[in-house]
């Protein structure tokens, strides 16, 4: 095999990693979340725009408010996960570009003065960061349960503002009993990779 990453780490991050549907009650600490962020913040985004914003849902009151907006089949998972994160795209990310992209601070106005351009860039790049976040959760020895089955407008109104677009809700914790569905198939190399 030509991968440099240790096979055990490959398994942890990809081969053995699954979307968890149940969790133990072991808490997810602020230190674990900080370690996850400190790793995944280095994942690339265009212009280093870094538009992902994360809202951690910890309090019982906030959890109850979130569960109301989840699709019926996702409610029990979200109600019982030790930690839930709302991942959103910041459509005003360009305000940070002079700091995040200092060798070309004019990028803020040259490319992102229009709201539509910002929304498209934020959605793409925050989605990239959401994938990094999920892998980071796995790197912390935790399981992630990312979901898009929820009322997006309701979650935005309840937890965000008009400048932030929700992307997904991620349940986080140690996997519980019967946490996994059977592994779904994947496409073969030749079905995905084309050489021209």
Blueprint of the fold:
Elements: H1 7-15, H2 30-40, E1 52-57, H3 60-67, H4 75-80, E2 83-90, H5 97-100, H6 107-112, H7 115-139, E3 143-147, H8 152-159, E4 164-173, H9 189-192
Antiparallel strand pairs: 1-2, 2-4, 3-4
Strand runs, count: 4
Low-confidence stretches: none
- Percentage of residues in strands: 5-15%
Strand line-up in the sheet with most strands? 1-2-4-3
Using the CA coordinates, give the radius of gyration.
18 Å
Fraction of helical residues: 40-55%
Main sheet makeup: 4 strands, antiparallel
Would you list the SSEs in sequence order as H and E?
Answer: HHEHHEHHHEHEH
- The class by helix and strand makeup works out as alpha+beta
Distance between the termini: 24 Å
Mean pLDDT: 96
Task: Give the number of helices.
Answer: 9
Q: What is the overall silhouette?
A: globular
Compact description:
The protein is of the alpha+beta class.
Explain this structure to me?
The structure is a single chain. With 196 residues, this protein is an alpha+beta fold. 41% of the residues lie in helices and 15% in strands. The protein contains nine helices and four strands; from the N terminus they run ααβααβαααβαβα. The protein has helices at residues 7-15, 30-40, 60-67, 75-80, 97-100, 107-112, 115-139, 152-159, 189-192; strands at residues 52-57, 83-90, 143-147, 164-173. A four-stranded antiparallel beta sheet has the order 1-2-4-3. Helix 1 (7-15) crosses helix 7. The longest helix has 25 residues, at 115-139. It is globular, with a radius of gyration of 18 Å. The two termini are 24 Å apart. The mean pLDDT is 96.
């Amino acid at each position: 095999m030509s991968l440099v990453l240790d096979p055990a780490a490959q398994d942890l991050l990809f081969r053995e990693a699954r979307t968890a549907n149940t969790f133990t009650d072991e808490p997810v600490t602020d230190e674990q979340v900080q370690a996850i962020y400190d790793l995944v913040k280095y994942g690339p985004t265009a212009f280093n725009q870094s538009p992902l914003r994360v809202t951690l849902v910890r309090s019982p009151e906030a959890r109850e408010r979130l569960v109301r907006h989840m699709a019926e089949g996702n409610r029990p998972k979200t109600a019982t996960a030790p930690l839930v994160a709302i991942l959103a795209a910041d459509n005003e990310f360009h305000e940070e570009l002079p700091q995040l992209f200092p060798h070309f601070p004019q990028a803020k106005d040259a490319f992102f003065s229009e709201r539509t351009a910002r929304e498209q860039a934020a959605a793409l790049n925050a989605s990239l960061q959401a994938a990094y976040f999920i892998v980071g959760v796995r790197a912390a020895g935790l399981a992630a349960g990312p979901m898009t089955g929820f009322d997006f407008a309701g979650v935005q109104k309840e937890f965000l503002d008009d400048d932030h677009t929700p992307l997904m809700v991620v349940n986080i914790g140690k996997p519980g009993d019967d946490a996994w569905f059977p592994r779904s198939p994947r496409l073969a190399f030749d079905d995905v990779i084309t050489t021209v």
